[in-house]
Amino acid sequence: MKILISGTVQGVGFRPTVYRVAKSQGLKGYVLNKGSNVEIGIVGDAAEDEFLDALQKKLPPLAVIDNIEVVGDSIEGYDDFRIITSSEGKKTSVTPVDTAICAECVRELFDEGNRRYLYPFINCTSCGARFSVIENVPYDRISTSMHDFEMCEACHVEYKDPMDRRFHAQTTSCPRCGPKYTLYDKEGTVIDDKDPIATFARLIDEGALGIAKSWGGMHLIGTFDQAARIRELYGRPSKPFAVMCRDLDAIAQYAEVTEAEEQVLTSTQRPIVLLTKKSDELSAISPVLSTVGVYVPYSGLHYVLFYYLHADGVIMTSANRSGEPMTVLNEEALNLKADYFLLHNRRIVNRLDDSVVRCYHDQKFFLRKSRGFTPTTVKITYTERILSLGAMENVSSSISKAGTVYTSQYIGSTFHYPTVQFLAAGTEHMLKLLGLSAADVDAIGVDLHPRYPTQRYGKSLAEEHQIDLVEVQHHWAHAASLMLDTGVDEVVALAVDGTGYGTDRKAWGGEILCSRYDSFDRVGSLEDIPLIGGEMAIKDIRRLAFAFLALAGRDAEAARFATEKEAAIMAKLMKQAPKTSSFGRVLDALSCYLGICQRMTYDGEPAMKLERYLAQGKPAYEFETAVERHNDRKVVRTLPLFEQLAGYRIQTEREKADVAYSFVNTLVTGLVEIAAEACDKTGIPAIGITGGVSYDVPIVRMAETRVNEKGLTFLTHDKIPNGDGGISIGQNAIVGHLRNGDKGKDT
User: Fold this and answer.
1) Residues of 236-271 as b/e, b for ≥16 C-beta within 10 angstroms?
2) CB 732 within 8 A of CB 403
3) Left, alpha or beta for 460 (phi > 0: left; psi -120 to 50: alpha)?
4) In this structure, what are the phi and psi dihedrals at residue 221, rounded to the nearest 5 degrees?
5) pTM of the predicted model as reported, rounded to 2 decimal places
6) Hey, how many other C-beta atoms are within 10 angstroms of the C-beta on 523?
7) What pLDDT does 745 receive?
């Protein structure tokens, strides 16, 4: 009897479990990794159900079985049960993800009598680096960067012992045979190679800035009082930093933690979780924001670092040049700005940023989906091999094959060429892990925007390999990602974000779409307003406030946001400016008007700073908006809201919060009214929210309240990123369905 099992079955201790179950039942035969799956051969007429029942009861914690196929092949020639050499085969399963070290490894790490005492690369079959070290499948040591380190005799004995928890642990090592850390100064001179983590921790406590190499990249590390120095060195005047704390007790000093957030913080993925700050103690870490990104140790290095540190929390944020992917090479790290560099000698095969999550009820909003979660898979109904490449910001790539779509780790902003190179290399690697090449792809999905680097990359692949190229409207892709995330075939979507290229060549961003996988109807939107100077208005948000107020006839108020000379130029530019219906730009203008933020120095800054006020505000002010019909589309007017805003005298922070809440709540109510009418007309029972603005929890609550009042179902994201990180999955679903049915329509 031969059994073929697919799913998350490599890199999670699956073969050792099969071995132990088979031996416990006295079976003879073999188990091996084959392709990305596992094959089991059993001699004779074994009780198939009894064996599989026992196997599923003993599954390792991280293993997931997607499919079991039993074939009647006769197995002979085995007088015992063995784990045998892996072989090539189908590549249809997900590659294992990096997993935080388990409790048993933590116990060994601090056991003075254990040979891995304080060894930062400690791991076992249940935990450790996986995707960050894997070069190909089957998942064997020879296919990982641990192949560079030959096992010592003691590790080999554990590896061969069926009763040892490191039985066939592919990345196992110890201080004698495994990777090592070395501490360097900024000239690249070795400072300490005997006890480098202890020395690094002492220097950090003393106020030094350090860069430490982890599993999938480098972190910039410093105590909280070093925030200003980091901002100056890296030109990040306001961008929030992530914080790693020793444990949950340490976090409780700085932030509120709900039960759901605690579960995510301590999960095997250990992402950064956005938590509500308790006080202004971390104000320099995330200026003006109500939240701070926090995580706890996930690798042996982190546990050992906190063993030596006096600080119970440190800034631990991605180390990279501005806008470029996180650094993974030692020689590149030494060119970054820091005092000391704690580097190890294991190659990083796959760059993996830390994942960032925000909890909403019992759901997760992924701001960045990477370490611990990717590569990720979603079941689909089409079998075509579609490659989709996302938009421009927060890009990921997705590849579908045989009823599953596989999504890469977070790539970043493709505005920068090194990120485009990362996208190309990451996509090629994912294709390789799935046993494909670009030439095997049936179609490529890209964003509609003609100037996005992802579209140019997709076009070059399509031309080189003669593959169909399908351009997908940005907000339709958002809506499709929400549909796939929530398991529905149609939705009335509030697709709200910064900007995305529309079918009318305008910049959309406050959209109501009746969406299906093969078509969409734009049934509503926000009013178009001018982007004075185009992209410049996104950074210099005074231009947005000026435009709204000038168009509303509030010239005196508009003059607050420009000098006389600037006002004259803006008034002239406004006549030819591109138009946008973006919800994000409305939030930017409101943030600017209320004096909360005057200039965007990082993506989403004005709206993120406004959120603090939305969270505290109440509907204490009266706002009214109007709805106009533009052909088949209803348009919620925003200029009247700014006109009314200019009529209020706002003096206190309390008044600022209340007026911000009242303004935005009126806008959300107007959008939900149109969406509910679309539900009545089409019979679609659900309204969902997607896009970058849907990370704003107060706005999501406003929408949920209005939708519930209508008696409709409210849908939000959980597994697929709300923002542009989910675009490639939405594109993939649309292209896959279009190739299986009627061509879609867009209006």
Assistant:
1) bebbbbbbbbbeeebbeebbebeeebbebbebbbbb
2) no
3) alpha
4) -125, 135
5) 0.94
6) 20
7) 39
- Helices 542-551/583-593 angle, 10° precision: 90
Instruction: Give the residue numbers annotated as catalytic, written as ranges.
Output: 15, 33
Spatial CB neighbours of 435, under 8 Å, sequence gap ≥ 6: 35, 36, 90, 91
CA distances from 661 to 160, 474, 593, 617, 746 (A): 63, 28, 14, 5, 34
> Using an 8 Å Cβ cutoff, are 685 and 679 in contact?
yes
Strand partners, 524: 512, 634
Contact 604, 692 (CB under 8 A): yes
Instruction: Annotate 584-639 with DSSP letters as a single string.
Output: HHHHHHHHHHTTS-SS-SSTTHHHHHHHHHHHH--S-S-----EEEETTEEEE--H
Residue in the block written with tokens 């074939």: 71
User: Residue 328 corresponds to which tokens in the numbers above?
Assistant: 């993974």
Rounded (10°) CA dihedral 670, 673, 679, 684: 60
What is the predicted pLDDT for the residue at 517?
97
**Token pair of 466, please?**
């003669």
Residue 93, pLDDT score:
66
* Sheet with 468-472: strands ordered across: 376-379, 404-407, 398-401, 386-388, 443-447, 468-472
pLDDT tens string 597-647: 999 999 999 999 999 999 999 999 999 999 999 999 999 999 999 999 999
Per-residue buried b or exposed e for 537-560, using 16+ beta carbons within 10 Å of the residue's own CB: bbebbbbbbbbbbbbbebeebbeb
Contact (Cβ atoms closer than 8 angstroms) between residue 290 and residue 612:
yes
**What DSSP assignment string belongs to 419-445?**
HHHHHHHHHHHHHHHTT--GGG-SEEE
Q: Which helix (H) or strand (E) holds 360?
A: strand 356-360
Length of the chain in residues, anyone?
A: 747
User: Closest Cα partner for 404 from 136, 95, 92, 38?
Assistant: 92
Q: Which two tokens stand for residue 652?
A: 């206190």
Fill in the amino acid letter for 410. Answer: Y
Which backbone phi and psi does 9 adopt, to 5 degrees? -125, 5
Contact 375, 409 (CB under 8 A): yes
Q: Is 68 helix (H, G, I), strand (E, B) or coil?
A: strand
Residue with tokens 């901002």: 231
Ramachandran sector of residue 731 (left: φ over 0; alpha: ψ -120 to 50; beta: rest): alpha
d(CA 386, CA 388): 6
Q: What is the pLDDT of residue 245?
A: 98
Q: Terminal CA-to-CA distance of the chain, rounded, Å?
A: 56
Residue 385, SS3? coil
Those residues of the chain that have pLDDT short of 50 are: 742-747
Tens of pLDDT along 7-65?
888 888 899 999 999 999 999 999 998 888 899 999 987 778 899 999 999 998 888 88
- Interatomic CA distance for residues 31 and 435, integer angstroms: 21
What is the spatial distance between Cα 226 and Cα 211, in angstroms, rounded to a whole number? Answer: 14
Q: Give the span between the Cα atoms of 676 and 598, in whole angstroms.
A: 35
The first and second tokens of residue 358, run together, are 């925000």
Rg (CA), the chain: 27
Output the pLDDT for position 742.
45
In angstroms, the CA 72 to CA 394 distance is 47
Residue 357: CB partners within 8 Å, gap ≥ 6?
264, 271, 272, 273, 274, 364, 365, 366, 367
Q: What is d(CA 579, CA 509) in angstroms, rounded to the nearest whole number? A: 11
How many Å apart are CA 108 and CA 111, to the nearest integer? 5
pLDDT at position 94:
67
